[in-house]
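Intended use. Records like the one below are meant for learning the mapping from a protein sequence to its folded structure. Do not use them to infer anything beyond what is encoded.
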Amino acid sequence: MSESVSFVEELSAVKVERETALTVGVFDGVHRGHLHVLETLKRRASEGGLASGVITLHPHPALVLNPSTPIVYLTTIEERVELLRASGVDFVVPLTFTLDLARYSARDFVSLLVQRLRMRFLLIGPDFALGRGREGGPELLSQLASEMGFGLEKVGPFVERGQVISSSTVRAALQEGDLETVAELLGRPFSLHGPVVHGVERGKVMGFPTANIGVGSGMALPPFGVYVTRAHIGAATYDSVTNIGRRPTFDNGERTVEVYIMGFDGDLYGAEVRIDVLKRLRGEVRFASVEELAEHIRKDVEDARAYLASHR
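Structure written out for the chain above:
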């Protein structure tokens, strides 16, 4: 079968110095269920004297195969790679998922992993399948493992208090605005990040200058409203309040993510800012006047300060 340049070159560009133990998946969110898989991978790699590696697929296969699929990302591919590396695996391979890759048979793809990445162990998660039409489930992979000489293990779902921790459960909690549960499932606060872009600067006029964060249209957001947040600018962290919505008091226009950063005075245009979204203060409201909105913003800031002071 002819090899598509994109993903074969991406695999070939990875220089492995020893045989490897691999796992393959999307890993959107890099939540605690994923970390459970990665801890198992690292143990098996250590036991076998192998290098541990993660292949993370992007874009999401479901979106490539059916662009109308209603999937939004919990993490950008850059965040995902950073979080996967932080888990302690030896290497991470972001692999571009294309229709060409979708047409690869399970046998051909596994053969690539053996040849290009020196795979000697494959760890698969719950409901895992690879290859054309998801043909490469546990049964076929077990057969290929015997033929090609690599170990295979399936790890079960990570269940806590009767709930499976998955990207779907994280998205469901986020959709409800339950940021505390989201943080528990992720093992860290939910965050949004992007460059600071130019806005209309209405907040500055009201005494609360905000930074407009350019969050990608394909990223998951909590329900529109006002949130307690912490803003990360370089190595510094600031208390903040963030409005996510369409500014109904003004124009009800495009969705925006506007953060008021307490104690910060400076020009942020073009800078990358990450905000940890901690708690929902209230829903989005259309106020009768700019003065009424300003009064509510003052109360939002007071409520956020109180929350942050009690959650250091």
